[in-house]
Amino acid sequence: MVCYTNHALDQFLEDLLKIGIPESNIVRLGGRANSAVAQLSLKKQTKERYNRSNAEWTIIDNLKTRAEFLRAEVETQFKSFLASGLSFSDMLTYVEFEDEDYFNAFQVPESTDGMIRVGTDGKAVDATYLISQWTRGRDAGIFKHEPHVQDAAAVWSMPHALRQQKMEDWKLAINRSVVDDIWKLARDFDECQDDLSRKFNESEVALLKQKRIIGCTTTGAAKYTEDIKAASPGVLLVEEAGEILESHVITALGRDTAHMILIGDHK
After folding, report:
1. How many CA atoms lie within 13 Å of 43's alpha carbon, on the beta-carbon side?
2. Which of 88-92, 193-197, 205-209 is the least confident region?
3. What is the DSSP string of the chain?
């Protein structure tokens, strides 16, 4: 039974008690009940002890562990995303799979004589030397006569402005990928938390299933939607139907609802 206001809900429940329906058959969801029906509140009713099996406790413990892991991963990756910029190594990793021509053009030849190669600035050359040169609008430096660099003339002849635009495109693609990974972690965390909430609400659902009448306002119906649907009510009675939006009525409908009764002022 769903009402628009707490006053109408309490009045309806009082009438049900007056016609002889036992209190033990009724439960009221939500707060702000008057003194005549306060004992029907879900929180105030005496609940039979709900015993979980060892298997159920194992499921709960596993969900808690997974939720904590996902929470930490979201926090770590998000902080890392905000704090750090993209390195040349990150760019190389990306273009290796997305822009093979550029990756080949940026490959630093390995030394075959055991000697350490240095650039014009006297610093040792590492794997990011060529992409660093290219990004700064320079030529391939000490490797400009290498065959694979010569073969990539189209890459190395690009104007500086186009190189910068290409770098920005790569950065945007990488950031989108990182954000997508963070979003997936956050989604998995939310789903895990929902599963945990459902497990802990099993005692309330068990109580609701024992009742003949579940009373609530439209706000209560929205708050306890999952619990109400789990209780599988077969009849939905809506008081003050003229005041309630259709979308609010839908939240109280379950797949097992066979009858809906709307009561309201025809004016």
Report:
1. 6
2. 205-209
3. -EESSHHHHHHHHHHHHHTT--GGGEEE-SS---TTTGGGBTTTSPPPP-PPPHHHHHHHHHHHHHHHHHHHHHHHHHHHHHH----HHHHHHHHHHH-HHHHHHTPPPPPSSSPPPB-TTSPBP-TTHHHHHHHTT---GGGTTSHHHHHTHHHHTS-HHHHHHHHHHHHHHHHHHHHHHHHHHHHHHHHHHHHHHHHHTHHHHHHHHH-SEEEEEHHHHHHTHHHHHHH--SEEEESSGGGS-HHHHHHT--TT--EEEE-----
Residues 115 and 27 in one domain: no
Is the residue at 173 inside a domain?
yes
Q: Let me know whether 79 and 109 are in one domain.
A: yes
Q: How many domains does the chain have?
A: 2
Does residue 219 belong to any structural domain of this protein? Answer: yes
List, for residues 202-258, the tens digit of each pLDDT value: 778 888 888 999 999 888 888 888 888 888 888 999 988 888 888 778 777 778 889
Q: What is the pTM of this model?
A: 0.54
